[in-house]
Design goal:
alpha+beta; three-stranded antiparallel β-sheet; two-stranded parallel sheet; about 30% helix; about 15% strand; binds zinc ion; HNH nuclease domain-containing protein; DNA-SBD_ScoMcrA; HNH_nuc
């Protein structure tokens, strides 16, 4: 590997993008999950990544289990509840507010997953409120959010609509870019020629300043 390639691949977004492009170009017909696992790239085929995620606030298990759980990723249940309340349990992609016998239901999705190799953070700007269908599609990289805040199909780029927003819920442009890179659709983060350091910084995209009325 050349020095330049090595330097480029040290950037997690560039690395994710590279894995996605290779996968799409040469390995599209192979079972993605087992392929990534065999290549030592487990987790690159999903937005959430690999690793046990534990919900904080649940009843504590027996001592042995608590010891074993030390290395687990803690997910803040209160934070998830907060973002769902802000959006009134409405999916930020389609606006669906799913009704159950016991009230409305939505899911809090991490944009940059908590699991390996993504190691995302459990914080408000890294969350989206989604319906179960769009959560699955976001996690399996079937949809992504472009730099203008438009939700698009990864396969053909078709727009599904604008991401719904709440003024009290700032979304990290850097995390959205990371997810796009996983989808192989990061067009802002790398240059095709010249020095990679001239590429735009992650946070320069206008998305975090856009808010819904
Ligand atoms: Zn939805």
């Amino acid at each position: 590997m050349t020095k330049q390639a090595e330097r480029l691949l040290a950037d997690p977004c560039v690395r994710s993008q590279a894995v996605a492009v290779l996968r799409e170009t040469y390995l599209a017909d192979v079972d993605q999950h087992s392929l990534m696992e065999r290549l030592g790239l487990a987790g690159y085929e999903s937005a959430s990544g690999v690793g046990d995620v534990e919900d904080q606030g649940k009843e504590a298990g027996p001592a042995a289990r608590r010891t074993a759980a030390l290395s687990r990723i803690v997910r803040d249940a209160a934070l998830a509840a907060k973002v769902k309340t802000l959006h009134g349990d409405r999916c930020q992609v389609c606006g669906l507010q799913l009704l159950t016998r016991f009230g409305t239901y939505s899911e809090a999705a991490h944009i940059r997953g908590l699991g390996r190799p993504h190691n995302g953070s459990d914080e408000l700007p890294n969350l989206l409120v989604l319906c179960p269908n769009h959560h699955v599609q976001f996690d399996t990289l079937a949809i992504y959010i472009d730099t203008e805040g438009i939700v698009r199909s990864t396969a053909d780029g078709d727009p599904l609509g604008e991401l719904r927003r709440h003024p009290a819920h700032q979304i990290s442009a850097a995390h959205l870019r990371y997810h796009r890179a996983l989808c192989g659709r990061d067009t802002t983060g790398h240059t095709t020629q010249g020095d990679s350091r001239t590429s735009r910084p992650m946070d320069s995209t206008p998305i975090s300043s856009v808010s819904e009325r």
